[in-house]
Design a protein that fits this description.
- It is a single chain.
- With 192 residues, the chain is mainly alpha-helical.
- The chain has one domain (45-183).
- 51% of the residues lie in helices and 9% in strands.
- The chain has helices at 25-37, 53-60, 73-94, 99-111, 119-129, 131-142, 156-173, and strands at 66-69, 147-153, 178-183.
- It has a 3-stranded parallel beta sheet, with helices on one face.
- Helix 2 (53-60) crosses helix 3 (73-94).
- The chain is globular, with a radius of gyration of 19 Å.
Length: 192
Amino acid sequence: MPTPTENLKLICGGNELVGAANLSYLAKERLIRHIRAVDADYVLVDLGAGSSYNTLDFFALSNYGVVVCTPEPQARVDAYGFIKNTVYRKLRRRFSKSEEIKEVINQFSKQAGRRTGRICALLEMIGEANPQAGREAETLLSSFHPRLLLNRVRRRRHVDEVHRFLDLVGVSFGQDGFCGLCAQRRSRPGSL
């Protein structure tokens, strides 16, 4: 669908269609192929909230996906969990035919909270189990750079808290992913 902005086009997501959010595996894979075939510099897909396989798989399409969250602590925890689950999903999909590597990933994901939980530790474990798989996993994740956009920032301390959060993400995932912030404006009574 054309828009008034040059070189910007929209594709309707079909939010009025019952079941559009719960695509079958085959429908999802077909849609992923079509998205990859779009002739565009950027493709923006609004995935909504949650960590369903469909949401993770669509987010994993991009090496520079943007996670939008508010400054509240639970929103940051959810954003961290979403990025972590996307990493696990990317690895599980890549090594879906290797029971050995799937078991390494599953064991790590169960123990991540009790140990360092760093993705570099997982990559080392994969490499110890199978050196070729370790190299493939490193290559797969070396191009994955999720970004965080902080929405509805009200106070300076929110920015400071997010920088501490990004330090955690950097340590856990080995990358810096700050994209920006949007300040919350005071609403004016009676204006629409």
